[in-house]
Automatic annotation (TrEMBL):
Residues 28-105 form the GIY-YIG domain. Keywords: ATP-binding, Helicase, Hydrolase, Nucleotide-binding. This is DNA/RNA helicase domain-containing protein. Pfam families: SLFN-g3_helicase. The keyword Nucleotide-binding applies. GO terms for molecular function: helicase activity. It comes from Microbacterium insulae. InterPro entries: GIY-YIG_endonuc, P-loop_NTPase, SLFN_3-like_DNA/RNA_helicase. CDD domains: GIY-YIG_COG3410.
């Protein structure tokens, strides 16, 4: 590739006038440019664009009041650039800037694309060189690997959607706007296995709807975008007073998304809610997008006495009495006109979570009403076969010797030694970052509150549970700890080392995977539903624990390492994974 150039100038009319009289490529050539607010300490912001006439485009920006805070311009010029390459570079820079977190990115997300074009791989190599030059200029603070391993990047609304995801978003937004116009109530369901990008779709929808609501006639909407048709005055008017919320039942994931929204214009961390926020709200919502719907609760013992009182009070306020049959999903319906539910019915991990029959009914209704949007393409696990299906089958004991598919370059390994697995995870973490040990809840949390010692010991090696519930993966010392289901559900890792505890065993006589209730140490994970007079049977508990390990075993983007405590289950896993 021909070397690129980055030309720098002040964001002023005199500077652009002087600059315009030089190289013809400044007026008639595909380029990418970056506007930034300079050393502004209050609200450092950045905007990335592409154009075939840099002079004209920058002059337009100078007339736009929303760009008044910018101070500098950098224009990337390359003789080999074409429209497709510029759109691709623009998308990369926007995503990297959002993940870097130093600047607030003022772009919308409707123009983020991942199109194929001639010699794309070669162009993308040059993008990294452009990144490094911009980093030397102070536009980026961190390296690409550091950025791409961050939650700001992974949970950013500036994501490239797969065609499957983009079509789902387009159809959902189109139907939602039509429902707003006619006053029709609606429920849509997005269904997908782990790693299909359900959370990303939810976050993308929040940002896209906000962009449509707040766009100005002077804004530059990418006309080639799948979503450009929504940026019309009628839709802006429809969304003007619409109240939208993103419900995230899990505390750690909710806190991570709040951090992303805090850095994202037009959305706010206040829009990210827990189910109790929804139930207590005195003002109803027009639209609630519910991530991890399967983690909503039914009437069961909550995490504290206060939460138990809250549940009863919310039921009484919304339904006239503390109706024990009402769930947090009923709160969502009572408090909103429109709902978008993101569901994987095999990711419930506690008895209090919504039962599979409720989730199945939602999916069935959505299919009947043509509001069901399945996501099938695996976006997390880089395997050549159905890895998620394989994991669920082996956990159910449905596979036999040599039934392991070819997962291509995906690094799936079985370890006879937990110490060797721990060392391998440390090695991967040094190489690529985001490699962590995780385990089922098969040991007591003795060190809770940062107490001394270890929580459990295996083969003479001591292990400590996660020291924090919030953002554990990125916390200091997490490489020396073991994460639980409650710290990793909804997150990505590059490598996951999974310890399968004694809560799962293998019965050689029946050749079935069975549960060991006493070995499972999560009291909330196995208690009966007293208010509903429903016991948590061994069959119920087995399904929940299989779901937990199903989640843990599908966190790794590049690889999953497995160690099994129960000797008979270890032999069974080894026979399937290694053909012995």
């Amino acid at each position: 590739m021909t070397p690129f150039e980055i030309e720098r100038l002040d964001f002023t009319t005199p500077a652009i006038s002087t600059w315009a009289s030089g190289d013809e490529r400044r007026t008639n050539w595909p380029v990418v440019y970056v506007l930034d607010s300079g050393g502004s300490p209050d609200a450092p912001s950045v905007y990335v664009g592409e154009t075939v006439s840099a002079v004209s485009r920058i002059r337009q920006h100078l007339q736009n009041p929303s760009k008044a805070g910018f101070r500098r311009v950098r224009v990337v010029i390359d003789e080999t650039f074409n429209k497709s390459a510029c759109l691709d570079l623009e998308s990369h820079l926007i995503r990297w800037l959002a993940g870097d977190g130093h600047y607030t990115v003022l772009n919308g997300n409707e123009g983020i694309i991942d199109a194929r074009y001639y010699e794309r791989d070669q162009y993308r190599e040059s993008f990294r060189d452009i990144f490094e030059q911009l980093r030397a200029d102070g536009i980026f603070q961190r390296s690409i690997p550091e950025i791409e391993n961050s939650d700001l990047f992974k949970l950013s609304p500036f994501k490239v959607l797969t065609r499957e995801q983009a079509i789902a978003v387009e159809q959902i937004v189109e139907a939602f706007l039509a429902d707003l116009a006619t006053g029709t109530r609606s429920t849509s369901v997005i269904q997908g296995d782990p790693g299909t990008g359900k959370t990303i779709v939810a976050i993308f929808l929040m940002k896209l709807l906000a962009d449509i609501r707040d766009y100005e006639d002077t804004d530059e909407i990418e006309q080639d975008s799948l979503f450009s048709e929504f940026f019309v005055p009628e839709n802006r008017e429809l969304l003007k007073s619409v109240r939208v919320g993103l419900v995230v039942p899990q505390q750690s994931l909710r806190d991570s998304i709040k951090k992303v929204f805090k850095k994202t214009p037009k959305v706010s961390e206040d829009l990210v809610l827990n189910p109790f926020d929804v139930g207590k709200s005195s003002t109803p919502f027009d639209l609630l997008i519910v991530d991890e719907t399967h983690r909503l609760n039914r009437r069961a013992n909550q995490s504290s006495g206060m939460r138990n009182r809250d549940f009863a009070d919310i039921n009484a306020r919304l339904f006239g009495s503390d109706d024990l049959s009402k769930t947090q999903l009923d709160w969502i319906r009572a408090q909103s006109t429109h709902q978008i539910l993101l569901i994987d019915e095999q990711q419930g991990v506690r008895p209090a979570d919504l039962p599979s029959e409720v989730l199945t009914a939602e999916i069935t209704d959505a299919k009947r009403l043509h509001r069901w949007f399945p996501l099938a393409r695996q976006m997390r696990v880089r395997a050549d076969a159905d890895y998620v299906g394989f994991v669920r089958q082996i956990l159910r004991g449905e596979l036999r010797t040599g039934d392991r598919p070819d997962f291509g370059e995906y690094d799936l390994r079985f370890f006879e030694s937990v110490a060797e697995m721990q060392q391998a995870i440390r090695d991967r973490n040094r190489e690529v970052g985001l490699a962590r040990l995780v385990a089922g809840y098969a040991w007591d949390w003795k060190t809770r509150g940062n107490g001394p010692g270890f929580d459990f010991e295996l083969e003479g090696t001591g292990f400590v549970w996660n020291r924090t519930d919030k953002d554990w993966i990125n916390s200091p010392g997490s490489i020396d700890e073991v994460g639980s289901i409650h710290t990793v559900q909804g997150y990505d890792l590059n490598y996951a080392g999974v310890i399968i505890g004694g809560d799962l065993r293998y019965d050689k006589l029946t050749q079935q995977v069975v549960v060991d209730r006493d070995a499972y140490r999560d009291k909330k994970g196995k208690e009966n539903l007293a208010q509903l007079r429903r016991p948590t049977t061994d069959d119920d508990l087995l399904a929940l624990i299989q779901n937990i390990y199903g989640v843990l075993l599908t966190r790794g983007i590049l690889g999953t390492y497995i160690y099994v405590c129960d000797s008979d289950l270890r032999k069974h896993f080894a026979s399937v994974l290694e053909g012995d």
